[in-house]
Specification:
This protein has 199 residues and is α/β, with parallel strands linked by helices. 39% of the residues lie in helices and 20% in strands. The strands form 2 sheets. It has a 6-stranded parallel sheet, with helices on both faces. It has a two-stranded antiparallel sheet with strand order 5-6.
């Protein structure tokens, strides 16, 4: 059986990160997606097209996605033939994240609606169009999913993630002391063991 593993990186990441997962899926082809999308509506088209192009010669497709890459994947690949998904620090409620960021930046919804876009001190841009889209297009995801979450994740709260996990019936593994971005040796080793144990 021919298996393809597709890796979708998080913000500031790259498709090359896919190489890290090759040793865990030694008998499969592992490819990374270097998406250009900045918004869920762009991701919907780009990820869907990529999937259709690369997956057609395979019997099975496994998805590994990181942070906003998981959110974009759920926007663009929800109706695709994916046998299972591994999400690392996924963003699972974009509306909540944007409203949290508005609160941190002291921006009201009326202000954002009037201006359309507001840049914040953290360097993140707030967009009313993005907020409106996230609100009108809630995630609809039914792929069997395993989630890795760091107890010190400062992007998605444990409460928000638990709500999502219960809704879709995912399994969750928490790394105590782990952050949103899994990158240091100890975190990557935990991540590798997590995937290996599930396989």
């Amino acid at each position: 059986m021919k298996q393809l593993v597709i890796y979708v990186h998080g913000k500031g990441g790259s498709a090359e990160e896919a190489n890290h997962y090759q040793h865990l899926f030694a008998d499969s082809d592992v490819i990374g997606l270097d998406y250009k999308a900045q918004t869920p509506w762009e991701a919907k088209t780009e990820l869907s097209d990529f999937f259709d192009l690369y997956s057609k010669d395979y019997d099975e497709v496994v998805l590994i996605a990181n942070s906003i890459g998981a959110y974009f994947s759920m926007c663009g690949l929800y109706n695709k033939r994916i046998s299972r998904a591994f999400f690392i620090s996924p963003i699972v409620n974009m509306e909540k994240l944007i409203t949290d960021m508005m609160m941190w930046a002291n921006v009201t919804e009326d202000e954002l609606k009037n201006k359309g876009e507001i840049s914040t001190q953290s360097g993140e841009n707030l967009s009313f169009e993005y907020l409106y889209y996230a609100r009108k297009n809630p995630i609809n995801w039914s792929v069997p999913t395993n989630i890795l979450y760091g107890s010190k994740d400062n992007v998605t709260s444990a409460e928000t993630l638990t709500e999502f996990v219960n809704k879709i019936g995912a399994s969750i593994t928490v790394m105590e002391g782990g952050e949103h971005w899994f990158h240091i040796d100890e975190q990557m080793s935990f991540l590798d063991n997590w995937i290996s144990n599930l396989l």
